[in-house]
Amino acid sequence: MNDPSPGRAPRRAPVFALLLAGAVSEFGNVLTFVAVPWFVLETTGSAARTGLTGGAVTLAVVAAGIFGGPIVDRLGFKRTSVLADLASGATVAAIPLLYHTVGLAYWQLLVLVFLGALLDAPGLTARQSMAPDLAQMAGIRTERVNSALQAIQQSALLLGPPAAGVLIAVLTTSNVLWLDAATFAVSAAAIASLVPALAGRSAGTSAGDRGSRRYLIELAEGLRFVRRDPVSSSTIPISVGLNFLIAPVLSVALPVLADRVYGGATSLGLMLGGYGGGALAGAVLFGLAGHRLPRRATFVVLLFVQALPLWALAAGVSLPVAVVALALMGFGVGPVNPLIYTAIQKRTPTELLGRVQGASGALAMAAVPPGMVLIGYALEVVGLRPTLIAVAACYLAVAAYALLNPALKEMDAPPRSHTQQHPPAPGHASDR
């Protein structure tokens, strides 16, 4: 969990394997994001069913993040990552397999999509949780590994959808789903073959502790840590608030802005490209220099950087200015997740890390659907400009909360001694 220490020969192959698995897995997730809704639309012709499929994915990710944490901690990070990739790949491969053989009813497709997202989320949590130990093993700062994972995600979001569209046009949707399933196998192979078993303790792996009662105890332990730790209990609500605001802006408000103000889909692509490019640049820059910066001050400044461009959009600026504003906003967004992950990882006992990071991601994701509904309704009732002003004001309120919250001073505190807080229990072992 700590930064690299002198005197140890670095082993960088495992951390490169983690980054490779992350890149392949993120690209596969983008293929799923594009190909599955298109497959539903092709095979059913129903926009409502396409939307329902997206809702099933969101529900599964939220449920897996909150309730899958104890499983991640119990199985260990490496084992969870490999098993999640293999299981997710099997669910994706089952879609074209069933469709071209015995047939695939819509409810069966919905179940497969739900299971795929449900199984994939613990794998993402597990890979993110490996970052501190593999960074230390490689002699690399934890901030850099977290930033690299974030940069990979941003690159996949920036380049993946156009690539997926081309692949669907060239290969057909079914073949793209086969390719998607193969990405999960590559990710699993990279982790299984190149990431070593890491020392640590998994909560509750003895035979007598595997029942539902022990599971609930482990789940409560993770949530209790989140509630009591000042950094986790402060940054998670901030993440929820940011996702509640930013995801609907990108997916609901910007299309309306492009249509009503800038004249079409080309302007939407330019604005989203500016945002994605800024986010990628921010993540990369934080990976290079983030360890030299005070975490709390950097975090607060980044929140204000994200908020200010929204006022420019609300003011009705020209398209080039809007693209620059969104690039600045993305630049503020890019480092936030690596910064939060690093701060939480340095304070969280290893045996609780899967639960804490899983709950953080799930709660943030859970804020997206109500945010989309609320902003969509606001756009219809009060209009575009008042909605953007309200979102910008709420963003400033979140930034002000971070500025005035004394608990966030703990972000700059030295890492805790986890072994003193949670002494190892006999008979517990892990592959981490």
Task: Please describe what this structure looks like.
The protein is mainly α and 432 residues long. Helix content is 79%, strand content 0%.
How would you describe this structure in keywords?
single chain, 432 residues, mainly alpha, Growth Hormone, Chain: A, 2 domains, 17 helices, disordered C terminus
The count of domains is 2
Count of individual beta strands: 0
Q: Uncertain segments of ≥5 residues (pLDDT<50)?
A: 199-208, 418-432
Main beta sheet strand tally, sense and closure: none
Approximately how much helix is present in the residues? over 70%
For the record, the CATH architecture of the largest domain stands as Up-down Bundle
Shape: globular
Rounded to an integer, what's the Rg over CA atoms? 21 Å
